[in-house]
DNA sequence: GTTTTCATGTAACCCGTTACATGATTCA
DNA sequence: TGAATCATGTAACGGGTTACATGAAAAC
Protein backbone atom coordinates (compact mmCIF):
# COMPACT_ATOMS: atom_id res chain seq x y z
CA UNK A 1 0.00 0.00 0.00
CA UNK A 2 1.34 3.36 -0.91
CA UNK A 3 0.93 5.02 2.41
CA UNK A 4 -2.69 5.88 2.63
CA UNK A 5 -1.77 7.68 5.82
CA UNK A 6 0.27 10.04 3.69
CA UNK A 7 -3.03 11.21 2.31
CA UNK A 8 -4.30 11.78 5.80
CA UNK A 9 -1.28 13.89 6.72
CA UNK A 10 -1.68 15.91 3.60
CA UNK A 11 -5.35 16.54 4.15
CA UNK A 12 -4.88 17.40 7.81
CA UNK A 13 -2.19 19.89 6.99
CA UNK A 14 -4.36 21.35 4.27
CA UNK A 15 -7.39 21.75 6.47
CA UNK A 16 -5.41 23.24 9.30
CA UNK A 17 -3.91 25.73 6.96
CA UNK A 18 -7.32 27.22 6.51
CA UNK A 19 -7.89 27.42 10.22
CA UNK A 20 -6.92 25.74 13.49
CA UNK A 21 -9.16 22.92 14.57
CA UNK A 22 -9.40 20.10 17.05
CA UNK A 23 -9.27 16.45 16.13
CA UNK A 24 -12.93 15.71 16.28
CA UNK A 25 -13.85 18.49 13.94
CA UNK A 26 -11.00 17.62 11.65
CA UNK A 27 -12.36 14.18 11.24
CA UNK A 28 -15.80 15.43 10.42
CA UNK A 29 -14.44 17.70 7.74
CA UNK A 30 -12.44 14.83 6.36
CA UNK A 31 -15.57 12.73 5.97
CA UNK A 32 -18.13 15.25 4.89
CA UNK A 33 -16.91 18.45 3.33
CA UNK A 34 -14.10 16.68 1.67
CA UNK A 35 -16.13 13.49 1.65
CA UNK A 36 -13.51 12.17 -0.58
CA UNK A 37 -11.59 9.63 1.28
CA UNK A 38 -13.05 6.64 2.85
CA UNK A 39 -13.12 7.77 6.42
CA UNK A 40 -10.30 7.32 8.83
CA UNK A 41 -11.04 6.28 12.37
CA UNK A 42 -9.88 8.11 15.45
CA UNK A 43 -7.49 5.31 16.01
CA UNK A 44 -5.70 6.56 12.95
CA UNK A 45 -6.31 10.25 13.20
CA UNK A 46 -5.09 10.97 16.70
CA UNK A 47 -1.81 9.09 16.37
CA UNK A 48 -1.30 10.87 13.10
CA UNK A 49 -1.77 14.24 14.76
CA UNK A 50 0.78 13.22 17.37
CA UNK A 51 3.27 12.46 14.65
CA UNK A 52 2.70 15.76 12.95
CA UNK A 53 3.24 17.54 16.23
CA UNK A 54 6.42 15.57 16.79
CA UNK A 55 7.61 16.69 13.37
CA UNK A 56 7.07 20.26 14.37
CA UNK A 57 4.41 20.82 11.76
CA UNK A 58 1.63 21.38 14.25
CA UNK A 59 1.37 22.71 17.73
CA UNK A 60 -1.25 21.79 20.24
CA UNK A 61 -3.04 24.63 21.90
CA UNK A 62 -5.43 24.40 24.80
CA UNK A 63 -8.83 24.70 23.24
CA UNK A 64 -10.85 27.85 23.63
CA UNK A 65 -11.72 27.01 27.19
CA UNK A 66 -14.55 24.54 27.31
CA UNK A 67 -17.26 25.67 29.71
CA UNK A 68 -15.68 29.04 30.35
CA UNK A 69 -12.18 30.38 30.75
CA UNK A 70 -11.25 28.39 33.76
CA UNK A 71 -8.43 29.90 35.82
CA UNK A 72 -8.44 27.14 38.40
CA UNK A 73 -5.44 24.82 38.47
CA UNK A 74 -7.33 21.78 37.28
CA UNK A 75 -4.24 19.87 36.29
CA UNK A 76 -5.98 16.82 34.93
CA UNK A 77 -8.21 18.86 32.75
CA UNK A 78 -9.22 17.09 29.58
CA UNK A 79 -9.60 20.12 27.40
CA UNK A 80 -10.17 20.38 23.73
CA UNK A 81 -6.90 20.44 21.94
CA UNK A 82 -6.75 22.77 19.06
CA UNK A 83 -4.14 22.08 16.46
CA UNK A 84 -2.50 24.92 14.65
CA UNK A 85 -0.14 24.80 11.71
CA UNK A 86 3.38 26.02 12.43
CA UNK A 87 5.37 27.97 9.84
CA UNK A 88 7.37 24.82 9.21
CA UNK A 89 4.15 22.92 8.76
CA UNK A 90 2.98 25.44 6.26
CA UNK A 91 6.22 25.19 4.41
CA UNK A 92 6.02 21.43 4.38
CA UNK A 93 2.49 21.49 3.10
CA UNK A 94 3.48 23.85 0.33
CA UNK A 95 6.18 21.44 -0.64
CA UNK A 96 3.69 18.61 -0.78
CA UNK A 97 1.40 20.81 -2.82
CA UNK A 98 4.09 21.47 -5.34
CA UNK A 99 4.90 17.92 -6.24
CA UNK A 100 2.99 16.49 -9.12
CA UNK A 101 4.63 13.10 -9.42
CA UNK A 102 3.02 9.76 -10.28
CA UNK A 103 1.70 9.27 -6.77
CA UNK A 104 -0.66 12.13 -7.26
CA UNK A 105 -2.30 10.36 -10.19
CA UNK A 106 -3.55 7.56 -7.96
CA UNK A 107 -7.22 7.34 -7.06
CA UNK A 108 -7.41 8.51 -3.51
CA UNK A 109 -4.31 10.57 -3.66
CA UNK A 110 -5.62 12.41 -6.65
CA UNK A 111 -8.89 13.19 -4.93
CA UNK A 112 -7.03 14.67 -2.02
CA UNK A 113 -4.87 16.74 -4.30
CA UNK A 114 -7.86 17.97 -6.21
CA UNK A 115 -9.59 19.00 -3.03
CA UNK A 116 -6.78 21.43 -2.38
CA UNK A 117 -6.44 22.72 -5.89
CA UNK A 118 -7.63 26.05 -4.61
CA UNK A 119 -4.25 26.46 -2.97
CA UNK A 120 -2.27 24.85 -5.74
CA UNK A 121 -0.43 26.67 -8.47
CA UNK A 122 -1.85 26.49 -11.90
CA UNK A 123 1.05 24.71 -13.48
CA UNK A 124 1.02 22.07 -10.83
CA UNK A 125 -2.70 21.64 -11.26
CA UNK A 126 -2.14 21.07 -14.94
CA UNK A 127 0.50 18.45 -14.39
CA UNK A 128 -1.61 16.62 -11.86
CA UNK A 129 -4.63 16.68 -14.11
CA UNK A 130 -2.67 15.51 -17.11
CA UNK A 131 -0.91 12.84 -15.13
CA UNK A 132 -4.18 11.57 -13.81
CA UNK A 133 -5.55 11.42 -17.29
CA UNK A 134 -2.62 9.47 -18.62
CA UNK A 135 -2.92 7.09 -15.74
CA UNK A 136 -6.54 6.47 -16.61
CA UNK A 137 -5.71 6.05 -20.23
CA UNK A 138 -3.22 3.35 -19.38
CA UNK A 139 -5.92 1.73 -17.38
CA UNK A 140 -8.30 1.84 -20.29
CA UNK A 141 -5.68 0.33 -22.51
CA UNK A 142 -5.24 -2.60 -20.16
CA UNK A 143 -8.95 -3.05 -19.90
CA UNK A 144 -9.41 -3.07 -23.64
CA UNK A 145 -6.57 -5.51 -24.09
CA UNK A 146 -7.77 -7.87 -21.42
CA UNK A 147 -11.27 -7.66 -22.78
CA UNK A 148 -10.14 -8.41 -26.30
CA UNK A 149 -8.46 -11.53 -25.02
CA UNK A 150 -11.31 -12.86 -22.94
CA UNK A 151 -14.34 -11.40 -24.61
CA UNK A 152 -15.83 -14.49 -26.14
CA UNK A 153 -15.53 -16.59 -23.02
CA UNK A 154 -17.56 -14.15 -21.00
CA UNK A 155 -21.26 -14.21 -20.41
CA UNK A 156 -23.57 -11.25 -20.82
CA UNK A 157 -23.45 -10.06 -17.26
CA UNK A 158 -19.71 -10.16 -16.97
CA UNK A 159 -19.48 -8.32 -20.23
CA UNK A 160 -21.96 -5.74 -19.08
CA UNK A 161 -19.98 -5.22 -15.89
CA UNK A 162 -16.83 -4.64 -17.85
CA UNK A 163 -18.59 -2.35 -20.26
CA UNK A 164 -19.94 -0.27 -17.44
CA UNK A 165 -16.58 -0.18 -15.72
CA UNK A 166 -14.84 1.00 -18.82
CA UNK A 167 -17.48 3.57 -19.45
CA UNK A 168 -16.90 4.97 -15.99
CA UNK A 169 -13.25 5.41 -16.67
CA UNK A 170 -13.93 6.98 -20.03
CA UNK A 171 -16.27 9.34 -18.36
CA UNK A 172 -13.64 10.42 -15.91
CA UNK A 173 -11.24 11.01 -18.75
CA UNK A 174 -13.76 13.30 -20.37
CA UNK A 175 -14.18 15.10 -17.10
CA UNK A 176 -10.45 15.62 -16.89
CA UNK A 177 -10.42 16.88 -20.44
CA UNK A 178 -12.92 19.53 -19.56
CA UNK A 179 -10.96 20.55 -16.53
CA UNK A 180 -7.72 20.71 -18.43
CA UNK A 181 -9.31 22.79 -21.10
CA UNK A 182 -10.68 25.17 -18.53
CA UNK A 183 -7.32 25.49 -16.91
CA UNK A 184 -5.76 26.24 -20.23
CA UNK A 185 -8.43 28.75 -21.10
CA UNK A 186 -7.99 30.38 -17.74
CA UNK A 187 -4.29 30.75 -18.26
CA UNK A 188 -4.55 33.64 -20.62
CA UNK A 189 -6.33 35.72 -18.10
CA UNK A 190 -9.18 37.01 -20.24
CA UNK A 191 -12.37 35.16 -19.72
CA UNK A 192 -13.19 32.81 -22.54
CA UNK A 193 -16.83 31.93 -23.24
CA UNK A 194 -16.29 28.55 -21.65
CA UNK A 195 -14.86 30.10 -18.52
CA UNK A 196 -16.82 33.08 -17.37
CA UNK A 197 -15.79 34.77 -14.15
CA UNK A 198 -16.50 32.73 -11.08
CA UNK A 199 -20.05 32.81 -9.95
CA UNK A 200 -19.44 30.57 -7.02
CA UNK A 201 -17.35 31.75 -4.16
CA UNK A 202 -13.68 31.26 -4.75
CA UNK A 203 -11.67 30.62 -1.63
CA UNK A 204 -8.46 30.78 -3.52
CA UNK A 205 -7.42 33.93 -5.22
CA UNK A 206 -7.70 32.32 -8.62
CA UNK A 207 -10.26 33.19 -11.19
CA UNK A 208 -13.16 30.82 -11.56
CA UNK A 209 -12.14 28.70 -14.44
CA UNK A 210 -13.98 25.49 -13.99
CA UNK A 211 -16.22 24.11 -16.68
CA UNK A 212 -19.87 24.99 -16.32
CA UNK A 213 -22.38 22.37 -15.40
CA UNK A 214 -26.09 22.70 -14.87
CA UNK A 215 -25.67 24.63 -11.76
CA UNK A 216 -28.00 23.11 -9.28
CA UNK A 217 -27.03 19.67 -8.16
CA UNK A 218 -23.39 19.68 -7.37
CA UNK A 219 -22.42 16.53 -5.64
CA UNK A 220 -21.13 15.30 -2.45
CA UNK A 221 -19.08 12.40 -1.60
CA UNK A 222 -16.96 10.48 -3.91
CA UNK A 223 -13.62 10.46 -5.40
CA UNK A 224 -13.37 10.15 -9.13
CA UNK A 225 -14.19 6.58 -8.42
CA UNK A 226 -11.85 3.82 -7.50
CA UNK A 227 -11.54 2.37 -10.82
CA UNK A 228 -8.91 -0.09 -11.68
CA UNK A 229 -7.21 -2.42 -9.30
CA UNK A 230 -3.88 -1.05 -8.07
CA UNK A 231 -2.77 -4.45 -9.21
CA UNK A 232 -0.49 -5.88 -6.59
CA UNK A 233 0.20 -8.44 -9.21
CA UNK A 234 2.79 -7.28 -11.74
CA UNK A 235 3.89 -10.54 -10.42
CA UNK A 236 5.52 -11.49 -7.25
CA UNK A 237 8.47 -13.02 -8.98
CA UNK A 238 11.40 -10.81 -9.86
CA UNK B 1 -13.90 -4.43 7.58
CA UNK B 2 -16.68 -6.61 6.37
CA UNK B 3 -14.61 -9.58 5.44
CA UNK B 4 -13.23 -8.72 2.09
CA UNK B 5 -11.90 -12.23 2.01
CA UNK B 6 -15.49 -13.41 1.93
CA UNK B 7 -15.60 -11.93 -1.53
CA UNK B 8 -12.55 -13.90 -2.47
CA UNK B 9 -14.07 -17.14 -1.28
CA UNK B 10 -17.21 -16.44 -3.17
CA UNK B 11 -15.40 -15.61 -6.39
CA UNK B 12 -13.11 -18.60 -6.12
CA UNK B 13 -16.02 -20.93 -5.63
CA UNK B 14 -17.81 -19.32 -8.52
CA UNK B 15 -14.90 -19.61 -10.90
CA UNK B 16 -14.19 -23.17 -9.93
CA UNK B 17 -17.77 -24.06 -10.54
CA UNK B 18 -17.26 -23.33 -14.16
CA UNK B 19 -14.17 -25.46 -14.33
CA UNK B 20 -11.32 -26.75 -12.17
CA UNK B 21 -8.26 -24.55 -12.10
CA UNK B 22 -5.00 -24.06 -10.29
CA UNK B 23 -4.21 -21.11 -8.07
CA UNK B 24 -2.17 -19.12 -10.49
CA UNK B 25 -4.79 -19.15 -13.16
CA UNK B 26 -7.49 -18.44 -10.63
CA UNK B 27 -5.74 -15.30 -9.65
CA UNK B 28 -5.40 -14.14 -13.21
CA UNK B 29 -9.08 -14.62 -13.81
CA UNK B 30 -9.82 -12.72 -10.66
CA UNK B 31 -7.81 -9.74 -11.86
CA UNK B 32 -8.60 -9.65 -15.52
CA UNK B 33 -11.72 -11.36 -16.72
CA UNK B 34 -13.53 -10.37 -13.63
CA UNK B 35 -11.25 -7.38 -13.27
CA UNK B 36 -13.63 -6.24 -10.68
CA UNK B 37 -11.99 -6.52 -7.41
CA UNK B 38 -8.82 -4.84 -6.49
CA UNK B 39 -6.48 -7.74 -6.85
CA UNK B 40 -5.62 -10.14 -4.11
CA UNK B 41 -2.05 -11.26 -3.68
CA UNK B 42 -0.95 -14.87 -3.55
CA UNK B 43 -0.34 -14.35 0.10
CA UNK B 44 -4.09 -14.11 0.40
CA UNK B 45 -5.20 -16.47 -2.28
CA UNK B 46 -3.29 -19.61 -1.38
CA UNK B 47 -4.20 -19.56 2.29
CA UNK B 48 -7.76 -18.98 1.24
CA UNK B 49 -7.67 -22.04 -0.98
CA UNK B 50 -6.31 -24.03 1.94
CA UNK B 51 -9.24 -22.95 4.04
CA UNK B 52 -11.74 -23.89 1.39
CA UNK B 53 -10.14 -27.31 1.12
CA UNK B 54 -10.29 -27.69 4.88
CA UNK B 55 -13.98 -26.89 4.73
CA UNK B 56 -14.47 -29.65 2.23
CA UNK B 57 -15.59 -27.29 -0.48
CA UNK B 58 -12.65 -27.97 -2.73
CA UNK B 59 -10.34 -30.86 -3.36
CA UNK B 60 -6.80 -30.63 -4.57
CA UNK B 61 -5.91 -32.75 -7.51
CA UNK B 62 -2.49 -33.30 -8.92
CA UNK B 63 -2.35 -31.11 -11.97
CA UNK B 64 -2.49 -32.57 -15.43
CA UNK B 65 1.04 -33.82 -15.16
CA UNK B 66 3.45 -31.03 -15.83
CA UNK B 67 6.14 -32.04 -18.32
CA UNK B 68 4.52 -35.35 -19.14
CA UNK B 69 2.70 -38.01 -17.20
CA UNK B 70 5.51 -38.88 -14.88
CA UNK B 71 5.29 -42.37 -13.45
CA UNK B 72 8.47 -42.06 -11.44
CA UNK B 73 8.16 -41.86 -7.69
CA UNK B 74 9.35 -38.29 -7.41
CA UNK B 75 7.99 -37.76 -3.95
CA UNK B 76 8.97 -34.16 -3.58
CA UNK B 77 7.38 -33.23 -6.83
CA UNK B 78 6.10 -29.68 -6.93
CA UNK B 79 3.26 -30.20 -9.31
CA UNK B 80 0.50 -27.93 -10.34
CA UNK B 81 -2.37 -28.30 -7.99
CA UNK B 82 -5.72 -28.20 -9.61
CA UNK B 83 -8.63 -27.29 -7.43
CA UNK B 84 -12.00 -28.81 -8.06
CA UNK B 85 -15.32 -27.95 -6.49
CA UNK B 86 -16.84 -30.72 -4.39
CA UNK B 87 -20.58 -31.31 -4.31
CA UNK B 88 -20.62 -29.69 -0.88
CA UNK B 89 -18.74 -26.76 -2.30
CA UNK B 90 -21.26 -26.41 -5.03
CA UNK B 91 -24.05 -26.53 -2.55
CA UNK B 92 -22.37 -23.92 -0.41
CA UNK B 93 -21.85 -21.65 -3.37
CA UNK B 94 -25.46 -21.96 -4.34
CA UNK B 95 -26.40 -20.94 -0.87
CA UNK B 96 -24.18 -17.89 -1.11
CA UNK B 97 -25.70 -17.13 -4.48
CA UNK B 98 -29.17 -17.19 -3.07
CA UNK B 99 -28.72 -14.64 -0.38
CA UNK B 100 -29.52 -11.10 -1.32
CA UNK B 101 -29.03 -9.37 2.00
CA UNK B 102 -27.56 -5.93 2.67
CA UNK B 103 -24.00 -7.16 2.32
CA UNK B 104 -24.56 -7.75 -1.34
CA UNK B 105 -25.36 -4.07 -1.86
CA UNK B 106 -21.85 -3.03 -0.90
CA UNK B 107 -19.42 -1.85 -3.56
CA UNK B 108 -17.06 -4.71 -4.00
CA UNK B 109 -19.45 -7.32 -2.83
CA UNK B 110 -21.99 -6.18 -5.32
CA UNK B 111 -19.51 -6.34 -8.17
CA UNK B 112 -18.69 -9.90 -7.26
CA UNK B 113 -22.33 -10.81 -7.11
CA UNK B 114 -23.02 -9.20 -10.42
CA UNK B 115 -20.18 -11.06 -12.05
CA UNK B 116 -21.97 -14.29 -11.24
CA UNK B 117 -25.45 -13.17 -12.18
CA UNK B 118 -25.31 -15.67 -14.99
CA UNK B 119 -25.72 -18.38 -12.40
CA UNK B 120 -28.09 -16.47 -10.17
CA UNK B 121 -31.83 -16.82 -10.15
CA UNK B 122 -33.80 -14.00 -11.56
CA UNK B 123 -35.59 -13.09 -8.36
CA UNK B 124 -32.37 -12.94 -6.47
CA UNK B 125 -30.86 -10.79 -9.18
CA UNK B 126 -33.74 -8.42 -8.83
CA UNK B 127 -33.37 -8.13 -5.10
CA UNK B 128 -29.66 -7.54 -5.33
CA UNK B 129 -30.10 -4.91 -8.01
CA UNK B 130 -32.83 -3.15 -6.10
CA UNK B 131 -30.93 -3.34 -2.87
CA UNK B 132 -27.90 -1.88 -4.49
CA UNK B 133 -29.94 0.91 -5.88
CA UNK B 134 -31.46 1.77 -2.55
CA UNK B 135 -28.04 1.74 -1.00
CA UNK B 136 -26.82 4.23 -3.55
CA UNK B 137 -29.87 6.36 -3.07
CA UNK B 138 -29.15 6.56 0.62
CA UNK B 139 -25.67 7.60 -0.27
CA UNK B 140 -26.96 10.31 -2.53
CA UNK B 141 -29.21 11.54 0.20
CA UNK B 142 -26.32 11.89 2.58
CA UNK B 143 -24.23 13.61 -0.03
CA UNK B 144 -26.97 16.09 -0.79
CA UNK B 145 -27.53 16.79 2.87
CA UNK B 146 -23.89 17.24 3.67
CA UNK B 147 -23.48 19.42 0.64
CA UNK B 148 -26.42 21.59 1.58
CA UNK B 149 -24.83 22.17 4.95
CA UNK B 150 -21.37 23.02 3.75
CA UNK B 151 -21.93 24.35 0.28
CA UNK B 152 -21.14 28.00 0.82
CA UNK B 153 -17.94 27.37 2.70
CA UNK B 154 -16.48 25.37 -0.14
CA UNK B 155 -14.34 26.63 -2.94
CA UNK B 156 -14.88 25.90 -6.60
CA UNK B 157 -12.66 22.89 -6.82
CA UNK B 158 -14.07 21.17 -3.80
CA UNK B 159 -17.52 21.83 -5.10
CA UNK B 160 -16.60 20.47 -8.49
CA UNK B 161 -15.22 17.35 -6.89
CA UNK B 162 -18.41 16.81 -4.98
CA UNK B 163 -20.49 17.49 -8.05
CA UNK B 164 -18.57 14.97 -10.05
CA UNK B 165 -18.78 12.41 -7.28
CA UNK B 166 -22.50 12.78 -7.00
CA UNK B 167 -22.91 12.58 -10.70
CA UNK B 168 -21.05 9.28 -10.71
CA UNK B 169 -23.41 7.84 -8.19
CA UNK B 170 -26.41 9.15 -10.06
CA UNK B 171 -25.07 7.54 -13.16
CA UNK B 172 -24.80 4.21 -11.47
CA UNK B 173 -28.35 4.52 -10.28
CA UNK B 174 -29.49 5.05 -13.84
CA UNK B 175 -27.50 2.03 -14.89
CA UNK B 176 -29.23 -0.03 -12.25
CA UNK B 177 -32.56 1.28 -13.40
CA UNK B 178 -31.89 0.04 -16.89
CA UNK B 179 -30.82 -3.32 -15.61
CA UNK B 180 -33.83 -3.66 -13.39
CA UNK B 181 -36.11 -2.73 -16.21
CA UNK B 182 -34.50 -5.30 -18.44
CA UNK B 183 -34.87 -7.95 -15.82
CA UNK B 184 -38.49 -7.10 -15.45
CA UNK B 185 -39.04 -7.09 -19.18
CA UNK B 186 -37.31 -10.42 -19.44
CA UNK B 187 -39.55 -11.93 -16.84
CA UNK B 188 -42.52 -12.29 -19.05
CA UNK B 189 -40.69 -14.48 -21.42
CA UNK B 190 -41.63 -12.87 -24.71
CA UNK B 191 -39.00 -10.57 -25.99
CA UNK B 192 -39.87 -6.94 -25.59
CA UNK B 193 -38.38 -4.38 -27.96
CA UNK B 194 -35.91 -3.33 -25.28
CA UNK B 195 -34.77 -6.87 -24.75
CA UNK B 196 -34.19 -8.67 -27.99
CA UNK B 197 -32.86 -12.21 -27.88
CA UNK B 198 -29.28 -12.44 -26.79
CA UNK B 199 -26.80 -11.67 -29.49
CA UNK B 200 -23.83 -12.18 -27.26
CA UNK B 201 -23.02 -15.59 -26.00
CA UNK B 202 -24.94 -16.50 -22.95
CA UNK B 203 -23.17 -18.83 -20.60
CA UNK B 204 -26.17 -19.16 -18.44
CA UNK B 205 -29.31 -20.65 -19.83
CA UNK B 206 -31.16 -17.39 -19.43
CA UNK B 207 -32.39 -15.27 -22.26
CA UNK B 208 -30.31 -12.23 -23.06
CA UNK B 209 -32.19 -9.54 -21.34
CA UNK B 210 -29.62 -6.88 -20.75
CA UNK B 211 -30.10 -3.35 -21.99
CA UNK B 212 -28.55 -2.63 -25.35
CA UNK B 213 -25.55 -0.38 -25.58
CA UNK B 214 -23.61 0.65 -28.63
CA UNK B 215 -22.19 -2.72 -29.10
CA UNK B 216 -18.53 -2.22 -29.67
CA UNK B 217 -16.64 -0.99 -26.66
CA UNK B 218 -17.72 -2.97 -23.72
CA UNK B 219 -15.50 -2.28 -20.82
CA UNK B 220 -13.08 -4.01 -18.68
CA UNK B 221 -12.00 -3.37 -15.25
CA UNK B 222 -13.89 -1.62 -12.62
CA UNK B 223 -16.54 -2.09 -10.13
CA UNK B 224 -19.39 0.30 -10.15
CA UNK B 225 -16.93 2.57 -8.52
CA UNK B 226 -16.09 2.85 -4.89
CA UNK B 227 -18.29 5.64 -4.11
CA UNK B 228 -19.14 6.60 -0.64
CA UNK B 229 -17.01 6.00 2.37
CA UNK B 230 -18.14 2.94 4.30
CA UNK B 231 -18.05 5.40 7.13
CA UNK B 232 -16.42 3.76 10.09
CA UNK B 233 -17.67 6.77 11.91
CA UNK B 234 -21.31 6.39 12.81
CA UNK B 235 -19.43 7.43 15.83
CA UNK B 236 -17.38 5.43 18.12
CA UNK B 237 -19.39 6.45 21.12
CA UNK B 238 -22.49 4.44 21.43
C1' DG C 1 22.02 -21.19 -21.98
C1' DT C 2 19.69 -17.67 -19.97
C1' DT C 3 15.66 -15.01 -19.21
C1' DT C 4 10.58 -15.01 -18.68
C1' DT C 5 6.66 -16.78 -17.34
C1' DC C 6 4.39 -20.18 -14.84
C1' DA C 7 3.63 -21.91 -10.22
C1' DT C 8 3.35 -22.54 -5.07
C1' DG C 9 4.13 -21.27 -0.78
C1' DT C 10 5.22 -18.70 3.98
C1' DA C 11 6.65 -15.51 7.57
C1' DA C 12 7.24 -10.86 8.86
C1' DC C 13 5.32 -6.75 8.87
C1' DC C 14 2.30 -2.66 8.39
C1' DC C 15 -1.71 -0.24 8.56
C1' DG C 16 -5.83 0.70 10.11
C1' DT C 17 -9.95 -0.71 12.55
C1' DT C 18 -12.52 -2.35 16.64
C1' DA C 19 -13.37 -2.09 21.03
C1' DC C 20 -12.76 -0.11 25.01
C1' DA C 21 -11.89 3.64 28.62
C1' DT C 22 -12.87 8.22 30.09
C1' DG C 23 -15.04 12.40 30.70
C1' DA C 24 -17.31 17.03 29.50
C1' DT C 25 -21.30 19.47 27.55
C1' DT C 26 -25.77 19.93 25.75
C1' DC C 27 -30.41 18.73 25.20
C1' DA C 28 -34.81 16.41 26.44
C1' DT D 1 -31.36 13.19 35.60
C1' DG D 2 -30.39 10.66 31.98
C1' DA D 3 -29.38 10.37 27.03
C1' DA D 4 -26.95 12.04 23.11
C1' DT D 5 -23.17 14.39 21.28
C1' DC D 6 -18.79 16.19 21.74
C1' DA D 7 -14.06 14.92 22.59
C1' DT D 8 -9.63 12.37 23.30
C1' DG D 9 -7.14 8.50 23.61
C1' DT D 10 -4.98 3.43 23.47
C1' DA D 11 -4.26 -1.56 23.17
C1' DA D 12 -5.37 -5.59 20.82
C1' DC D 13 -6.48 -7.63 16.87
C1' DG D 14 -6.92 -8.78 12.07
C1' DG D 15 -6.47 -8.77 7.36
C1' DG D 16 -3.67 -8.30 3.56
C1' DT D 17 0.59 -7.17 1.43
C1' DT D 18 5.65 -7.48 0.84
C1' DA D 19 9.34 -9.92 0.47
C1' DC D 20 11.40 -13.93 0.25
C1' DA D 21 12.29 -18.99 -0.98
C1' DT D 22 11.93 -22.44 -4.48
C1' DG D 23 11.57 -24.62 -8.69
C1' DA D 24 9.68 -26.19 -13.39
C1' DA D 25 8.51 -25.13 -18.28
C1' DA D 26 8.69 -22.21 -22.14
C1' DA D 27 10.63 -18.76 -24.96
C1' DC D 28 14.42 -16.41 -26.88
Brief write-up:
Chain A is mainly alpha-helical. Chain A contains seven helices and three strands; from the N terminus they run αβααββαααα.
Protein architecture, described:
- The structure is a homodimer of 238-residue chains.
- Chain A has 238 residues and is mainly α.
- Among the domains of chain A are: 87 residues, Arc Repressor Mutant, subunit A (Orthogonal Bundle); 67 residues.
- The first copy, chain A, has 7 helices and 3 strands; from the N terminus they run αβααββαααα.
- A 3-stranded antiparallel β-sheet of chain A has the order 1-3-2.
- In chain A, α1 crosses α3 and α6 runs antiparallel to α7.
- In chain A, 40% of the residues are buried.
- The C terminus of chain A is likely disordered.
- The interface between A and B is large, with 77 and 77 residues.
- The first copy, chain A, binds a DNA duplex (28 and 28 nucleotides) through α2 and α3.
Which short descriptors sum up this protein?
homodimer, 238 residues, mainly alpha, Arc Repressor Mutant, subunit A, three-stranded antiparallel β-sheet, 7 helices, disordered C terminus, DNA-binding, coiled coil (chains A, B), WH_DNA-bd_sf (chains A, B), Tscrpt_reg_PadR_N (chains A, B)
N- to C-terminal distance of chain A:
19 Å
The largest pleated sheet of chain A is described as: 3 strands, antiparallel
Q: Give me the secondary-structure category of chain A.
A: mainly alpha
Mean pLDDT figure of chain A = 78
Helix fraction of chain A by DSSP (H/I, runs of at least 4): 40-55%
CATH topology label of the domain at 4-65 and 78-102 in chain A: Arc Repressor Mutant, subunit A
State the CATH class of the domain at 4-65 and 78-102 in chain A: Mainly Alpha
Please indicate the percent range of residues of chain A in DSSP E strands (runs of 2 or more).
5-15%
> Strands of the biggest beta sheet of chain A: in what spatial order?
1-3-2
**Cα shape of chain A:** elongated
Oligomer: homodimer
